[in-house]
Predict the 3D structure of the following.
Amino acid sequence: MWAVTNPEVERLANARYLSLTTYRKDGTPVPTPVWVTEEEGFLIVITEAASGKVRRLRRDKRVSVAPCDARGEIQGDPAEGSVTLFDEPDLISRAFDLQRQRYGLQSWLGAWYARLRRVQNVVIAIAIDEDDAIKVTGEESGGQTTETH
């Protein structure tokens, strides 16, 4: 079995909040602080399907992400990436499970309020550009770590 890790994904997934920057039609950046989890090498964000960020992402899949505080003040280096949007109920449910594990009661209350309002959600899966070294560890390599550029 292979384990592929991107150090940038790990660094960003450890942030309590992530500044997710999307882009308007004219290229103007729009940063938004969001909760983040990680699954299979992707950064995972849940948001309302009708939100401005989703409208922008349907047109332009590019994003910039950086660790931030709850107010969106950047607290680390940004990374570039691209997104895939998912609206399948089982994937949304899995993303909420991950979010509950990480954010606890806050997440549960947010999900409850969204259900009360009958909000449609989407999952934003963020793939970070792999300009940095990727470490690959697996049984076939004898458990050794190799780096590729």
